[in-house]
Amino acid sequence: MSLKHQRVVVERGPRSGLPIIVAVHSTALGTAIGGCRIATYPDWRDGLDDVLRLSSAMTQKAALAGLPHGGGKTVVALPAGAVLDRRAVLHDVGDVIENLGGIYATGPDVGTGPDDMMTIGERTGYVLCRTGDSSPGTAAGVVASMRAVVADRFGSPELSGRSFAVLGAGRVGSHVVRLLRSAGATVLTADVDPSRRTAMESVGATWTDPRSCLTAAVDVLVPAALGGVLTAGTVPTLRCAAVAGPANNQLATDDIADLLHERDILWAPDVVVSAGGIVHAIATELHHETPAQVTTRIEAIGDTLSGILSAARETSSTPAAAASRLADFLVGTPPTPLPATV
Ligand SMILES: NC(=O)c1ccc[n+]([C@@H]2O[C@H](COP(=O)([O-])OP(=O)(O)OC[C@H]3O[C@@H](n4cnc5c(N)ncnc54)[C@H](O)[C@@H]3O)[C@@H](O)[C@H]2O)c1
After folding, report:
1. How far is the centre of ligand 1, averaged over its atoms, from the C-alpha of 134 (Å)?
2. Residue ranges in the chain whose pLDDT is less than 70
3. How many angstroms is it from 314 CA to the middle of ligand 1?
4. Domain tally, the chain
5. Which ligand 1 atom minimizes the distance to the CA of 270?
6. Is 116 exposed, middle or buried (0-12, 13-18, 19+ CB in 10 A)?
7. How many angstroms separate the alpha carbon of residue 227 from the centre of ligand 1?
8. Does residue 314 lie in a domain region?
9. Which has the least CB within 10 A, 95, 119, 290, 303?
10. Other CB atoms closer than 10 Å to residue 262's CB: what's the count?
11. Rounded to 5 degrees, what are φ and ψ at 311?
C-alpha cells in the first residue's frame, strides 16, 4: 500500500516513554486539524493503523464541512494496563505538535477533553477547544442533517411527527434528544449508563434498552454511542428507514454501506453528520466568526448532506460513495471511477 499521508511522525515520548503518533494526511486546503486520541491498543502499530485511517477521514470531514483545512490526527498508543502520567504524556504530545511547525493543530478526541488541551497548550499554540464543550455544536449539525434525511426520505424536512431512536444519551446524544423533542418528534432512547434515564424521560423521550433501541421500528436510527455499530450482523435486524447520527466510524467495514443500500435504508455518512462541533471550534477559535456566522455554517451541513443524497440517487451509488467523491473533488484528489451499479 502506498503512503497517502503528507507526514507521519512516530516518537517515543521522552517524559512518558509512550508512542506518540501524529499523522498529517493533507494540508491541501489549509492547516491539518484533528483530535488527540489516548487509547489502549494491543500493539503500538495498531495505533499507527488507527491514526492513518482517522487522519484521512479528517481530511474528508473538513473538506465536506467547507472548512479551509486538511486532516490530521494524534494517537497515544497505550499498552494494556498502562498507568498514565497524564501531564507527562500531554507535554510529549505538545512537543511533537510544536515541532511540526504549524502544519497541524489538535483538539479533543476519545480519551481527552478540554482540560487536556490546556495542558498540551503549555507546550504548543497549535491546539483547539481549550475551553467549552463541542457537543452542542455537534448536536446542532446532527439535527440539521436530520432535516435533510427526512426531506430525502419522506419529502418534507419537518421533524414534527417523525420518530427517532437515539442510541447513546451521552454529551451529544442527550442534546440531540432535547432538540428533536423541542421540534415535536417522537424519541426513543437508550444508554448502557442508566443514570441518563431520568434526564431523558424529563424531556419526554421514552427509555428502552440498547438492543431494542437499535432495532426499533422508527423513521431514523441515530447512532450516538460508539463506532462500528453497523455490521453484517446488525444491519439485517434494523427496522428503520434511515440511519443518521454523530457516532464516528459507524460502518464496521466499508461494504456495510452496500448492505444498507440493498435493504433500502438511507445512511447519512457520519463524516458529514458529525462535523458541527469541529465547525464551531474552527470558525470561532481560528476564524473569529460571529455566533450568527457559525450557526449558518452548522446549518449548511444539512445542505451539504442534501446534495450528497441527491448525487447518490442520481448516480445509483451509496451516500458513502457520493460523499467520498465530493470530498476528493474538494481536496483536488483524482476521483475513483464510479462502480457501474451498486
Ligand atoms: N462530542 C462531540 O462533539 C463529537 C463530535 C463528533 C463525533 N462525536 C462522536 O459521537 C459519539 C458520542 O460522543 P459523545 O461526546 O456524546 O460521547 P459520550 O461518551 O458523552 O456519550 C456516549 C454515550 O454512549 C453510551 N454508550 C456506550 N456504549 C453504548 C452501547 N453499547 N449502547 C448504548 N449506549 C452506549 C455511553 O454510556 C455514553 O453515555 C462518539 O462516537 C463520538 O466519537 C462526538
Report:
1. 12
2. 333-342
3. 33
4. 2
5. 7
6. buried
7. 9
8. yes
9. 290
10. 11
11. -60, -40
Choose among 289, 50, 273: nearest CA to 143.
Answer: 273
Together in a domain, 85 and 110: yes
Looking at residue 340, what is its pLDDT? 42
* Residue 61 appears among annotated catalytic residues: no
The C-alpha cell of 326 is what?
465530493
Same domain, 94 and 171: no
How many angstroms separate the CA atoms of 117 and 137, rounded?
18
Taking alpha carbons only, the member of 258, 265, 260, 261 closest to residue 240 is 265
Q: What is the pLDDT of residue 226?
A: 84
Q: pLDDT tens digits, residue range 16-25?
A: 999 999 999 9
Whether residues 251 and 166 share a domain: the answer is yes
- Residue to mutate, 138, 209, 279, ligand 1, most ligand atoms under 8 Å from C-beta: 138
Q: Of the listed 37, 69, 73, 280, which one is catalytic?
A: 73
**How many alpha carbons lie under 13 Å from residue 250 in its C-beta half-sphere?**
26
Distance of CA 250 from the midpoint of ligand 1 (Å): 12
Residue 117 in contact with residue 130, Cβ under 8 Å? yes
Residue 334: predicted pLDDT: 56
Q: Which pLDDT value is given to residue 338?
A: 44
Residues having CB closer than 6 A to ligand 1 are 134-135, 138, 167-173, 190-193, 196, 210, 224-227, 246-248, 274, 277
The per-residue pLDDT for range 125-146, each reduced to its tens digit, is 999 987 778 899 999 999 999 9
Known binding-site positions for NAD(+): 168-173
The pLDDT of residue 341 is: 38
Top mutation candidate among 64, 135, 166, 222 for ligand 1, by most atoms within 8 Å of CB: 135
Are 116 and 140 found together in one domain? no
- Domain range enclosing 94: 7-61+70-120
Judged on CB neighbours under 10 Å (0-12, 13-18, 19+), 148 is: buried
Report if residue 21 sits inside a domain.
Answer: yes
Q: Which residues pair with 158 in a beta bridge?
A: none
The CATH number of whichever domain residue 244 belongs to comes to 3.40.50.720
